[in-house]
Amino acid sequence: MGRRFVTVVVVIAGLSGCGCGDDEGGGGGPDLDVGASCEVAEDCFADLEGEVPGEIICIDRVEEGYCSHACVDDTECCSIEGECDFGEELGELAEVCAPFESMGGTWCFVSCEDLVEVDGETLCQDVSVDLHCRSTGGGGDNRRVCLPDG
Q1: N or C: which end of the chain has fewer CB within 10 A?
Q2: Which tens digit of pLDDT belongs to each residue from 44-67?
C-alpha cells in the first residue's frame, strides 16, 4: 500500500489538469505505453528497452485502440523499467492484469482502483483526456481501469 498511497497523494496534490497522452503530439503529457492509442500491435511499446512479457496487443474494441500486453497477474504489468512511468507530473501509476469484456485472456491496464473513491475519473483524465475510469467488463474478475469510451 505504501507506494500506491504515495502515488495517490502525489497525483491528488500535484496535478494541474494537463491534457495528456495525445499520440499526435498535441497533448504535452506523458508518453503512454499501456493505454497508448494504436492501430496495430507494432505501434505499442516502441520506446521501452527490454522485452515485454506476454503478447503485445492493440485492443481495437475501444476507440483509437489501446496498447496492452498479456499477463497472468498484476506483477507482470509494470515489469519493464519505464512502463508505468507517466512523467514528472504523474510519476509511477499502478497497472492491473484483468480480462477485457468477452475478448479472452488477461491484459495490463492503467488502474484507477485505488482512487475510485477519491477521484478516479480525474486520474484517468490527467493520464489522457480520452481515458475514463470504468470496469473492464470481464465477468467476476472485473477491475476498475482507465479506458477510452467504446
Answers
A1: N
A2: 988 887 788 899 999 998 888 889
Domain range annotation of the chain? 2-148
Q: Residues with Cβ < 8 Å from 49, sequence gap 6 or more?
A: 80, 81, 82
- Residue 96 C-alpha cell reads as 492491473
In contact, 61 and 103? CB cutoff 8 Å? yes
Alpha helices in the chain (DSSP H): 2-14, 87-90, 120-127
Question: What is the rounded distance in angstroms from the CA atom of residue 92 to the CA atom of residue 125?
Answer: 16
Q: List pLDDT tens digits, range 6-21.
A: 333 333 333 333 333 3
Compute the radius of gyration of the chain from its Cα atoms.
14
Note the pLDDT tens digit of each residue in 75-96.
999 888 888 887 777 777 889 9
State the pTM of this model. Answer: 0.74
